[in-house]
């Protein structure tokens, strides 16, 4: 999640745990602890693939943060004994303020490396977008009440309750969307295909489903207000003929560990050279994927891994098409019309099948 929301979450947790003892100081300290794990963004690993895949790594590890919470609790118990706060209470304060950060990140698309340093893929159960105004406002409302009044503990607890209720609603919405998708996938024989169901930006009313079946990549939008309209699938190519080349290099293997099968491969000209590019299909939409990485370039008849991977842009549709897509996406929140039809924004060589209404 964004840094403001993480600070608000840490502040609310801090106020709920030690607000009665420390007052507004608990809110302030909690806010600082809530943003602490994201300080890893200042680290530059010298490579675009490394920078993306190492983020939410060691600084979000349950092991590391539990150790840090224990150390801080012992220090506070030693340095501030007069406050009559037990070491167990300090430990709960630091632990909850720190751990709620990666646990919330695990509810977004890219997930979190909760079990670092174990070589386990990021944990992700996406039910909220990386920026969700309603979730953030629930926390901020409680914090404003805590800062304005005397009952810090109660106000923060109410903020956490409202934010938690919103997450429960989001989880229920995801289950409802998956149930609506099930018969469509059964008709296509895609019941066992790897899938990713996630909310579209800034809301939990409209959801995007991405499925992978060999070289095929399917997309669907499902809204809670779609009524009886059956979800439709748009079908694209993934360029799996380039998969062995990508997987023959460490960066390609790292991306596969990070994104699983949700990758597209292509060769296009970059700086005058034929370049192998891997695109993460999880964030954005077809035609609007922001995370693409250069992996290798052709020298004569041979492919060589690039010394440093770059994060590339586009190719994106024209500005007019972008505005049209955003307008259609906003309209889809409250009903099935107009269809987004992402196939309109994708190069013809990637499209396999578009629904008849597109």
Automatic annotation (TrEMBL):
<dbReference type="InterPro" id="IPR007404">
    <property type="entry name" value="YdjM-like"/>
</dbReference>
<protein>
    <submittedName>
        <fullName>Integral membrane protein</fullName>
    </submittedName>
</protein>
<keyword id="KW-0812">Transmembrane</keyword>
<keyword id="KW-0472">Membrane</keyword>
<feature type="transmembrane region" description="Helical">
    <location>
        <begin position="155"/>
        <end position="177"/>
    </location>
</feature>
<dbReference type="InterPro" id="IPR053170">
    <property type="entry name" value="Transcription_regulator"/>
</dbReference>
<dbReference type="Pfam" id="PF04307">
    <property type="entry name" value="YdjM"/>
</dbReference>
<feature type="transmembrane region" description="Helical">
    <location>
        <begin position="57"/>
        <end position="75"/>
    </location>
</feature>
<keyword id="KW-1133">Transmembrane helix</keyword>
<feature type="transmembrane region" description="Helical">
    <location>
        <begin position="87"/>
        <end position="104"/>
    </location>
</feature>
<feature type="transmembrane region" description="Helical">
    <location>
        <begin position="124"/>
        <end position="148"/>
    </location>
</feature>
């Amino acid at each position: 999640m964004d840094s403001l929301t993480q600070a608000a979450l840490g502040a609310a947790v801090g106020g709920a745990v030690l607000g009665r003892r420390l007052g507004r100081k608990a809110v302030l300290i909690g806010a600082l602890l809530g943003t602490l794990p994201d300080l890893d963004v200042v680290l530059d690993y010298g490579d675009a693939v490394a920078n993306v895949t190492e983020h939410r790594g060691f600084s979000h590890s349950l092991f590391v943060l539990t150790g840090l919470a224990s150390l801080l609790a012992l220090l506070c118990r030693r340095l501030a004994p007069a406050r009559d706060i037990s070491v167990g209470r300090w430990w709960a304060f630091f632990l909850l303020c720190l751990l709620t950060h990666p646990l919330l990140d695990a509810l977004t698309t890219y997930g979190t490396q909760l079990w670092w340093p174990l070589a386990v893929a990021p944990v992700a159960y996406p039910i909220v977008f990386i920026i969700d105004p309603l979730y953030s406002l629930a926390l901020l409302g409680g914090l404003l009440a805590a800062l304005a009044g005397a009952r810090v503990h109660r106000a923060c607890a109410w903020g956490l309750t409202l934010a938690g209720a919103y997450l429960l609603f989001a989880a229920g919405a995801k289950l409802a969307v998956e149930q609506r998708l099930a018969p469509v996938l059964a008709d296509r024989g895609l019941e066992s295909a790897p899938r990713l169901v996630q909310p579209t930006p800034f809301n939990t009313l409209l959801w995007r489903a991405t499925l992978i079946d060999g070289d095929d990549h399917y997309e669907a939008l499902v809204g809670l207000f779609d009524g009886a309209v059956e979800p439709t699938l748009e079908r694209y190519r993934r360029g799996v003929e380039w998969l062995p080349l990508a997987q023959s290099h460490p960066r390609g293997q790292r991306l596969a560990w990070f994104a699983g099968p949700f990758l597209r491969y292509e060769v296009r000209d970059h700086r005058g050279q034929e370049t192998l590019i891997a695109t993460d299909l999880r964030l954005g939409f077809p035609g609007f994927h922001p995370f693409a990485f250069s992996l290798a370039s052709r020298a004569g008849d041979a492919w060589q891994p690039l010394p440093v991977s770059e994060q590339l842009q586009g190719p994106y549709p024209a500005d007019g098409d972008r505005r049209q897509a955003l307008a259609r996406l906003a309209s889809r929140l409250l009903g099935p019309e107009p269809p987004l039809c992402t196939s309109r924004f994708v190069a013809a060589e990637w499209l396999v099948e578009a629904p008849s209404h597109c």
